[in-house]
Amino acid sequence: MMWRKSTLRLTDSLPPLTCTVLPVHPWTPGVGRKAATGSYLSPQNAAHWLAQKLSGTGRNLRVMVVMLCATSQPEFMSLLAAFSAVLPLPVLGQVSRMAQTAATQAITRMQLPPKASGGLPAPQPLSADTLRLAQRAKIMAEAKAEAASGANVAQLQAHLTALSDARQSAHEAIGQALGDLSQKSVNAWVFTGEGLAANMQKEVPQPDAVMTLATLFAGEEVSALEAMVHDNHHIGP
Predict the structure, then answer these.
(1) Which pLDDT value is given to residue 208?
(2) Does residue 64 carry a pLDDT above 80?
(3) Is the pLDDT score of 237 beyond 80?
(4) Rounded to the nearest 5°, which phi and psi values hold at 194?
(5) What residues does 34 pair with on adjacent strands?
(6) Is the pLDDT of residue 235 over 50?
(7) 167, 178, 188, 192: most buried, per Cβ within 10 A?
(8) Is the torsion defined by CA of 2, 232, 76, 236 positive or negative?
(9) What would the pLDDT profile of 142-200 be if each residue is shown by its tens digit?
(10) Where are the beta strands (DSSP E) in 112-179?
(11) Pairing, β 20-24 against β 211-218
(12) What gap in Å lies between CA 179 and CA 184, rounded to an integer?
């Protein structure tokens, strides 16, 4: 098995999965290369790091590795956004924030410090667990009070109609969301197989890339994820 360029697209037949998820990216401690201009990681180093982790398990696991390679930060951010739209893993959000912070810091270093000014920050919704709990308690209290006061037939019919409309709208929204998801895709390098840690380091693609995110999925059920993979063509680096 070798690395191959593929298109990843969500399928509505994907069952619930349990597997190990191990990402590596430019900000993974001890892996990426730090420079004055930012953090970088080559595809070769990413594949080597994952292969070492896989070899250390001592088990013949089924694996699938999805790797995003970019030669610039804007390209890397675009690939992250596309991958997140298909498979919104928490690590993708974390890496996106790190990349965005790095980009913002780079821009800030090139600008003059802004003049200090007074005033307050813009208002934003206040959200906290205790506030949400209090709001839910208020809604429940109002519902109990309404039930205790009694309701006529017309009111009950109105509530049932509203509930039916809300249910129909929810079903339509879910159908629309699934349709939208099926249209989202990302082009990435993919490696699949069993116990192939050594092969993972052969003919690693895009050796000139400087920013890489590689995510390894390992376990007995990983083969279900392969339904998302649509091969474009089998090519080397």
Answers:
(1) 94
(2) yes
(3) no
(4) -125, 125
(5) 39
(6) no
(7) 188
(8) positive
(9) 777 766 666 567 777 777 788 777 777 776 665 565 556 556 888 999 998 876 677 88
(10) none
(11) antiparallel
(12) 9
- Residue 91: both structure tokens together: 């690590």
Q: Cα 177 from chain centroid?
A: 17
26, 184, 5: which is closest to 96 by C-alpha? 26
Angle between helices 90-109 and 73-86 (to 10 degrees): 160
Q: How far apart are CA 24 and CA 68, in angstroms?
A: 11
Q: Are 33 and 39 in contact (CB under 8 A)?
A: yes
Residue 233 CA to residue 230 CA, distance in Å, equals: 9
pTM of the full predicted structure?
0.66
To which H or E segment does residue 63 belong? Answer: strand 62-70
> Quick one: CA dihedral 207, 209, 211, 213, positive or negative?
negative
- Which range has the worst mean pLDDT, 45-49, 84-88, 212-216? 84-88
At 139, is the secondary structure helix, strand, or coil?
A: helix
Record the tokens describing residue 57, joined without a space. 């398990």
pLDDT for residue 127 is more than 60: no
Nearest to 226 by CA among 33, 51, 13: 13
The enclosing H or E element of 223 equals none
**Could you give the CA distance from residue 50 to residue 69 in angstroms, rounded to a whole number?**
15
Helix (H) or strand (E) holding 230: strand 229-233
